[in-house]
């Protein structure tokens, strides 16, 4: 298990925007009275969506809002790897899967490209726009190798297609997520190879059946 620590450099304070404070209270209202601490993960996510990461002053604000010990909020923020404990790229944050299926399909090449184009892992580029890290399995093994960029999955990647995606973000555009080779979901390359007969789905092969013990139709 990796060691997760708060960033050395922290802002002096944190405050929710009015909109995000309402969103945090919306999450809190989903739980019975006295159980608002159950919203801690959702409220920390609101923090991250506002700031791009979870700074230390935000832990104290969340603890006060939910009426819980700061250490318990700290435990949640450091346990779940979905929470970034240091700043990430404002434009695009790349999370490259390095688990076995993606590694066998070339994720090392993706990480080499990002290190060349952006810099070392877990460090933000000089312009503040980009950063990347290696993560564990994100459940898209059929479309390996893949990366989560901001909140979207980009799959069936090669260094060349990932470079094209990076260039799109650099140009101020957001490339569409999904498979880089155009396959639908986890279907085989080129489209479905089985269960392709329309008769399997249009009802033409259906045969009349009689349910056991069903009453006879009225005359």
Q: How would you describe what is shown here?
A:
The chain has 219 residues and is α/β, with parallel strands linked by helices. Helices cover 33% and strands 10% of the residues. It contains 7 helices and 5 strands; from the N terminus they run ααααβααβββαβ. The protein has helices spanning 18-28, 40-51, 56-66, 70-79, 100-104, 107-117, 159-170; strands at 92-97, 130-135, 147-149, 152-155, 178-179. It has a 5-stranded mixed beta sheet with strand order 2-1-3-4-5, covered by helices on one side. α1 packs antiparallel against α2, α2 runs antiparallel to α3 and α3 packs across α4. The radius of gyration is 24 Å and the shape is flat.
- Provide the spatial order of strands within the biggest beta sheet: 2-1-3-4-5
For the sheet with most strands, the description reads: 5 strands, mixed
Assign a percent range to the helix content. 25-40%
**Averaged pLDDT, please?**
92
Summary, kept brief:
By secondary structure, the chain is α/β, with parallel strands linked by helices. The protein is built from 7 helices and 5 strands.
Give the helices and strands, then pairings.
Layout: H1 18-28, H2 40-51, H3 56-66, H4 70-79, E1 92-97, H5 100-104, H6 107-117, E2 130-135, E3 147-149, E4 152-155, H7 159-170, E5 178-179
Parallel strand pairs: 1-2, 4-5
Antiparallel strand pairs: 1-3, 3-4
Helix pairs in contact: 1-2, 2-3, 3-4
